[in-house]
Amino acid sequence: MVSTVRTSRKKPKWIGKTLWKEMTAYWDTEEAQERSQIYSNARMSDRNGLGPHIHFSGSKSYHQIRDELVSLLSVYSFATLI
């Protein structure tokens, strides 16, 4: 949400005037723009020809991912024993 208002520069109702002034002042600094570019480059990095990383698993908790991995690994390790 903040990323969207940073690029659009349209102040939403849920951000107060004082905070909005501070946020926009920071976004205009050279430091903030350099950091933004560094992080953007990292997100869009090539990963040895694989392109940028994209999440396809949807919204999942760490516990759900852990349970899925445990299940997958237990099936895999059982299959290698046969």
Outline the low-pLDDT stretches: none
Looking at the structure, what is the overall shape? elongated
What's the alpha carbon Rg, rounded to whole Å?
A: 21 Å
In helices, the fraction of residues equals 55-70%
Q: What's the rounded overall pLDDT mean?
A: 86
Content-based structural category: mainly alpha
Total strands: the figure is 0
What amount of the residues lies in strands?
under 5%
Order of helices and strands: HHHH
Roughly how many Å apart are the termini? Answer: 51 Å
* Biggest sheet character: none
Number of helices: 4
Would you mind describing this structure in some detail?
The protein has 82 residues and is mainly alpha-helical. Helices cover 63% and strands 0% of the residues. The chain is built from four helices and no strands. 0% of the residues are buried.
